């Protein structure tokens, strides 16, 4: 007969192989966060740029089935529960999509465009929009949020 320690090890191994253990951990973290989150606490105003960045991240998280991480992001940063329409993001960020890229998150396209500046799948229009937002502006916003 197996010992309790051996049963624990087999159970843990089985849950890890099925991916259930990580889901349980993620769900637990999300629930702990929700329990500790004070809905009356004022959050700093979300800049337009941060709002769009959060939406890109949320789309990426949901695409990759990181639903608990996405729920924590949404709650913590104050994004609306309902995601923005993808077409709105495309227009707002001046991204020109190719038909074969519509099935993946926009963040993949932004990264691909930055990594492959000569690749025309994601024209430079997307990076032109981001170039208006300089590093000094980002640093100033980060400092304001920290104080």
From TrEMBL:
PROSITE patterns reported for this sequence: LISH
InterPro entries in alphabetical order: FOP_dimerisation-dom_N, LisH
UniProt KW DNA repair keyword: no
Domain FGFR1 oncogene partner (FOP) N-terminal dimerisation: 49-113
Major subcellular site: cytoplasm
Compartment list: Cytoplasm, Cytoskeleton, Cilium basal body; Cytoplasm, Cytoskeleton, Microtubule organizing center, Centrosome, Centriolar satellite; Cytoplasmic granule
GO CC list: centriolar satellite; ciliary basal body; motile cilium
GO biological process, one term: cilium assembly
Source domain of life: Eukaryota
Keywords, alphabetical: Cell projection, Cilium biogenesis/degradation, Cytoplasm, Cytoskeleton
PANTHER family xref list: CENTROSOMAL PROTEIN 20-RELATED, FGFR1 ONCOGENE PARTNER/LISH DOMAIN-CONTAINING PROTEIN
Family, per entry: Belongs to the CEP43 family.
Role played: Involved in the biogenesis of cilia. Required for the recruitment of PLK1 to centrosomes and S phase progression.
Name of this protein: Centrosomal protein 20
């Amino acid at each position: 007969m197996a010992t309790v320690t051996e049963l624990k090890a087999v159970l843990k191994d089985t849950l890890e192989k099925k991916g259930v253990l990580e889901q349980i951990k993620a769900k637990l973290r999300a629930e702990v966060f929700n329990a500790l989150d004070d809905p009356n606490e004022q959050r700093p105003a979300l800049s337009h740029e941060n709002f769009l960045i959060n939406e890109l991240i949320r789309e990426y998280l949901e695409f990759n089935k990181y639903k608990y991480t996405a729920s924590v992001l949404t709650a913590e940063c104050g994004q609306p529960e309902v995601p923005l329409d993808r077409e709105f993001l495309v227009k707002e960020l001046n991204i020109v999509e190719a038909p074969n890229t519509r099935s993946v998150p926009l963040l993949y396209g932004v990264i691909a465009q930055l990594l492959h500046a000569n690749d025309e799948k994601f024209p430079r229009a997307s990076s032109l929009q981001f170039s208006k937002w300089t590093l000094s502006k980002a640093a100033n916003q980060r400092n304001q949020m920290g104080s």
